[in-house]
Amino acid sequence: MLRFADDLKVYVYREPIDFRCGINTLAALVTDSMRLDPLARAVYAFHNRKRDRIKLLLYERTGFWLLLRRLEEDHFAWPQRNQEVIELTTEQLHWLLDGIDIDALRRHPARRYQHAS
Q1: Would strands 85-88 and 63-70 be described as parallel, antiparallel, or unpaired?
Q2: What are the DSSP calls for 18-58, one per residue?
Q3: Distance between CA atoms of 89 and 92, rounded to whole angstroms?
Q4: What is the pLDDT at residue 54?
Q5: Residue 33's closest CA among 46, 42, 20?
Q6: What pLDDT score was predicted for residue 33?
Q7: Contact between 28 and 36 (Cβ < 8 Å)
Q8: Which of 16, 34, 57, 96 could form a disulfide with 44 if both were Cys (CB 3.0 to 4.6 A apart)?
Q9: Please, which residues have CB within 8 angstroms of residue 77's CB and are 6 or more apart in sequence?
């Protein structure tokens, strides 16, 4: 399994894209629609309408990577948030690629105590 560095930013495009798009079109989508820099140290994730495919775009030192993952029978649980661009951690991206619905995961709320008992 491919693993990304923990310090890498991850941006998820919420809407489905035409999967005939290549590196140039996706880089333009990152710039124009997501208002982000495609040359930044980040991974940009896109999905098709059926959510059975994911494309990941990232730039590393001298060129772009375009990775494609296709599921044969299942579909990816894409985050259903209101913002057009969703920021995730690399751990959440790995969960997404593994088929975990990251919106269904709930953490304990952060607590701010005044003193210890």
Answers
A1: unpaired
A2: -TT--HHHHHHHHHHTS---TTSSEEEEEE-TTSSEEEEEE
A3: 5
A4: 94
A5: 46
A6: 92
A7: no
A8: 57
A9: 51, 96, 99, 100, 101, 102, 103, 104
The pLDDT score that the predictor gives to residue 107 is: 63
Distance CA 114, CA 13 (A): 40
* pLDDT tier for residue 38 given thresholds of 50, 70 and 90: very high
Tokens of 114: 């005044």
DSSP state of 95: H
Could you tell me if 52 and 71 are in contact, meaning their C-beta atoms sit under 8 angstroms apart? yes
Which of 41, 35, 32, 31 lies closest to 9, judged by CA?
Answer: 41
Q: How many CA atoms lie within 13 A of 31 on its CB side?
A: 8
